[in-house]
Structure formats: structure tokens, C-alpha cells
Specification:
Layout lengths: L1 H14 L3 H14 L4 H14 L2 H14 L4 H13 L3 H14 L4 H13 L3 H14 L4 H13 L3 H13 L5 H13 L3 H19 L1
Length: 208
């Protein structure tokens, strides 16, 4: 029937990355079957693909009414809320994921990042430490942890986190600058000078 045809169209369009077409097709399915959880979830993912985060949040909340323990939906909701700068709500979504699945490193990282945005420094530290307990090589988590520890007033721990991030490579220029500033605050001038000189040298080599 028409609903099955729209369902097939939505699936095909999504596979091809045609998010607008997929969203249009899944809206038809959801309109015919409002309580069909899989269709609600598919619509929300298609809307995320279109960049319509407000509509995606609505669809994700509707989908979660029928699938309240679906960690992927909660994670997607949190990510959409982050893009809308609704960080407190995003943190709640990520907390739900970690409560359902304590081994989800991505959720712990996302929760830590949201708590940094919320200036909830101790909560950010706790979440990022949980992420790193699962994956100690996450440069992004180490850099964020350094920032959170610095804002929480634990300069020595912040230095340790930032040094680890830089040692793993892939750390941003901002991470290097934050570490250099902490070295200066701690009167570790030779280390600060060495770090800034290395940063300058890397910048010159990158421009060459």
C-alpha cells in the first residue's frame, strides 16, 4: 500500500544521502502510523541530515516516547540540542545515555563538553575522566579535561591533562596556548618558552 511505498522510498533516499526526500517520505509514514517507533526514529535521523535541528528535536522526543531506552536516539537528541546551544538539556540527554550504557565513551565525552559549556566544571571533570577511563588516547577528551580542571582551580592536574594531549599529537593550537599560560602562572618559564617556540616553529613550517 501507499505507506509501504513511502517506507521503501524513505529507506532508499536515506541510503543515498537524500535527506530532504527521506524526511518527506518518513513524514508520510509517521502521519499514517503515529505510534510506529521505527518510523519516528527514521524521520528524526533524516531531519538531522537536513540540518533542521529544531524539527529533529521534536521528532526525536516523539520517537523516545515509544523507545525510551534507545541510547542512539538520546545521543542524537543531545547532539541536536548542542547545535541549538541548549547545553543544559543536552547534558540531560547525554546523562541518560551514560546511565543506560556506562561503556559509551562518546556519550561521556559529549556530556563533559556540555558541562564545560554549562560552566559545571566538577561535573565536566567527572564525565571526561569517565571517558578517558574507557579510552585513554582521546586527545579531545584530554584537552577538554585540562580546560575543566583549570577552571575548577586545579592547575597542576590541568597541566598533566594538557601535556598528555600534546604528547599524543593532534592537539590544537589552543591547547598548546592553554598549557603555556599555565606554565607561566606556575612560574615554569623555561617550559613555557620552549612550548611557545615550538608552536611558532610549527606554524612557520606549516606556512612554508
Amino acid at each position: 500500500d501507499d505507506v509501504d511505498a513511502y517506507r521503501a522510498l524513505g529507506q532508499a533516499a536515506q541510503r543515498e544521502g537524500l535527506h530532504e526526500e527521506a524526511a518527506s517520505a518518513w513524514r508520510k509514514v509517521v502521519s499514517a502510523n503515529p505510534s510506529e517507533a521505527k518510523a519516528q526514529a527514521a524521520l528524526s535521523r533524516a531531519l538531522l541530515g537536513t540540518g533542521d535541528d529544531r524539527a529533529a528535536v521534536g521528532a526525536l522526543n516523539e520517537a523516545l516516547q515509544h523507545q525510551p531506552t534507545d541510547t542512539e536516539l538520546h545521543l542524537a537528541l543531545g547532539q541536536a540540542l548542542v547545535r541549538l546551544s541548549r547545553h543544559e538539556e543536552a547534558a540531560t540527554s547525554f546523562q541518560t545515555v551514560t546511565a543506560l550504557d556506562e561503556s559509551n565513551a562518546e556519550a561521556w565525552l559529549a556530556l563533559g563538553a556540555s558541562q564545560v559549556e554549562n560552566a559545571a566544571w566538577d561535573d565536566a571533570v567527572q564525565a571526561l575522566e569517565a571517558c578517558l577511563a574507557l579510552d585513554a588516547q582521546r586527545v579531545d577528551a584530554l584537552a577538554l579535561l585540562g580546560k575543566a580542571r583549570m577552571r575548577a582551580g586545579n592547575a597542576e592536574a590541568a597541566i598533566t591533562s594538557l601535556e598528555k594531549a600534546i604528547a599524543l599529537d593532534g592537539a590544537s593550537c589552543q591547547t598548546h596556548v592553554q598549557l603555556g599560560e599555565l606554565y607561566l602562572d606556575a612560574a615554569r618559564f623555561s617550559e613555557a618558552l620552549g612550548l611557545f617556540e615550538a608552536l611558532k616553529r610549527d606554524g612557520q613550517e606549516g606556512a612554508a
